[in-house]
């Protein structure tokens, strides 16, 4: 089945574009290149049909997501409009439709902000990404290192080939959120849990840019705090798994201690909630219940260190007074 979508780019002399299940087939004028700098195509935002975009963004649907962002760069639109356009072009939508926007992030900066007039969150294509996202393939040698050092079993369920399941190498921190293709950021997952994890992360696509910004924080307190603020902005609680993900780089194994310090030492209004799903599994979430205080001028790590030093000094003083 074919779906037709007609677009006219006068500045580029592009002929109507016909879409089929195999991808776009675009005829372009030989006298004007889509990469050329024109009023409709600033040099920092290449045309959707340019060789640069085809090389930077893999997949027909992801390139269509870039096209949608590019066409609306002067009038940013909400996620619902992208889903609507995807439906019109491809004749279908699925759970990965929103994720296609995230696949643009490795090559281009996409800002997300709330329209003051409507209060609606919209997406704006800003520029090429200078802080290049790691797109390197996982080499055979690196795969062997992962299996040798981390085991030939799923990091989530413990099953392996002996149990009849296939394993895949997964990025612990998604590449779209700044994760690198390095040993410390890779782990084996069974196909079932790898797909489940991707679906779980794709449910946060609407705040993907904010999560990426949070993950670029200099310390775990900043990263946890900023991701809590991102979830607070859309009125959703933050899963404990996300707390662990953003804190794991420098304080792996103890992210909840950083969360407690954020709450009790730095004074953030954070509440935890527990709820059981129909299968009886308990899910823990955290959320801000008010505005977050400003970060201390000395930085959160220095503030926590000073607090602990003073607390221990008070404890020693109390012990000496008790001995008198």
Automatic annotation (TrEMBL):
* Biased amino acid composition, Basic and acidic residues: 305-324
Q: One Pfam family from the UniProt entry?
A: HNH
Domain HNH nuclease as annotated: residue spans: 142-195
Start and end residues of each stretch annotated as Disordered = 18-49, 290-324
Q: Which UniProt keywords apply?
A: Endonuclease, Hydrolase, Nuclease
MF terms in GO: endonuclease activity; nucleic acid binding; zinc ion binding
Q: Which InterPro entries match?
A: HNH, HNH_nuc
- Read off the SMART domains from this record: HNHc
- Name the chain's protein: HNH endonuclease
* Source species: Cryptosporangium phraense
């Amino acid at each position: 089945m074919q779906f037709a979508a007609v677009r006219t780019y006068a500045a580029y002399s592009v002929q109507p574009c016909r879409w089929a299940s195999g991808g776009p087939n675009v005829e372009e004028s030989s006298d004007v290149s889509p990469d050329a700098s024109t009023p409709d195509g600033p040099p920092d935002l290449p045309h959707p049909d340019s060789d640069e975009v085809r090389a930077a963004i893999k997949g027909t649907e992801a390139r269509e997501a870039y096209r949608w962002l590019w066409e609306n760069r002067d009038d940013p639109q909400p996620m619902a409009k992208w889903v609507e356009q995807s439906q019109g072009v491809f004749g279908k939508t699925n759970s990965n439709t929103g994720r296609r926007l995230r696949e643009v992030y490795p090559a281009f900066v996409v800002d997300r902000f709330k329209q003051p007039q409507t209060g609606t969150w919209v997406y704006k294509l800003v520029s090429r990404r200078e802080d290049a996202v790691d797109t390197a393939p996982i080499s055979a040698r690196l795969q062997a290192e992962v299996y040798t050092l981390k085991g030939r079993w799923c990091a989530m369920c413990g099953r392996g080939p002996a149990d009849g399941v296939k394993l895949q190498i997964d990025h612990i921190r998604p590449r779209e959120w700044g994760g690198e293709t390095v040993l410390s950021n890779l782990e084996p997952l069974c196909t079932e849990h790898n797909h489940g994890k991707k679906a779980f992360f794709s449910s946060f696509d609407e705040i993907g840019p904010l999560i990426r910004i949070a993950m670029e924080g200099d310390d775990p307190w900043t990263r946890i705090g900023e991701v809590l603020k991102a979830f607070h902005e859309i009125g959703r609680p933050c899963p404990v798994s996300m707390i662990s993900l953003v804190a794991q780089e420098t304080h792996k194994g103890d992210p909840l201690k950083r969360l407690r310090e954020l709450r009790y030492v730095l004074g953030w209004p954070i509440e935890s909630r527990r709820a059981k799903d129909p299968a009886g599994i308990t899910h823990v979430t955290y959320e801000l219940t008010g505005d977050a205080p400003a970060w201390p001028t000395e930085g959160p790590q220095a503030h926590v260190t000073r607090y602990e030093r003073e607390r221990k000094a008070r404890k020693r003083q109390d012990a000496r007074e008790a001995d008198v």
